[in-house]
Amino acid sequence: MVVGDGESETGRLATSWHGNKFLNPVRDGAVLPIIHLNGYKIANPTILARIPADELEMLFKGLGWTPYVVEGDDPAANAPADGCRAEHCVTEIRAIQAATRANPDVEPERPRWPNDRPADAEGWTCPKELDGHKLEGSWRRTRFRFTDPVTNPAHLKMVEAWMRSYKPEELFDESGALIAELKAMARRGRAGLRRIRMRMAGCCGSRWRCRTSRVYGEGGEAGARFRCRRRRRWRIFWAM
Q1: What is the mean pLDDT of residues 157-180?
Q2: Who has the most CB within 10 Å: 18, 99, 130, 200?
Q3: How many CA atoms lie within 13 A of 196 on its CB side?
Q4: CB neighbours of 134 closer than 8 A, spacing ≥ 6?
Q5: Which pTM was predicted?
């Protein structure tokens, strides 16, 4: 599960870091949380970017996780390191599960699940600046746009250089289709992301029974004041 550091500080996600307290490694599954720590959200720095690295590490250790971090500004160096670290985290999860499931009758101690935290610049690989304004490594990356590349040759060159930096000639064939090697990496059949039961119903779900809202209405004349038994109506709703 990948979330940005801006999303991770919102109410529900900030609370969800305590979800590891409820996981039983013998019978439950596990999720590897990956926080993309780039330092900014829509208009200002994130909370996690405002605290020192050692304090951030103590925060996640205090929440019961084992944090793993890779920092850097070079995509060519960071990408392999990110892959190796993620693989290490998955291997650690498998080891925790294997050790506890080998003795299912023994009450397991709560493990420290791994937490993956790649740290790089906001808007990584985008143009460094636009008309004197910093883009990469700044909140402006989410706000500034190339609005006039058709009429502004300098901006058109920047857009072209940006797009070519992703080396599309290595990803697509002459007709513009994805090359076979990359197509083969996609999971197929029931292993496909949209077929996973936990993500959405797909082919495995059942139709949700939803009755009309009129069933839960409370009688009364329009504009009149009356008491509504909300809890009773709420019980009827959940008992459907």
Answers
A1: 90
A2: 130
A3: 6
A4: 128, 140
A5: 0.66
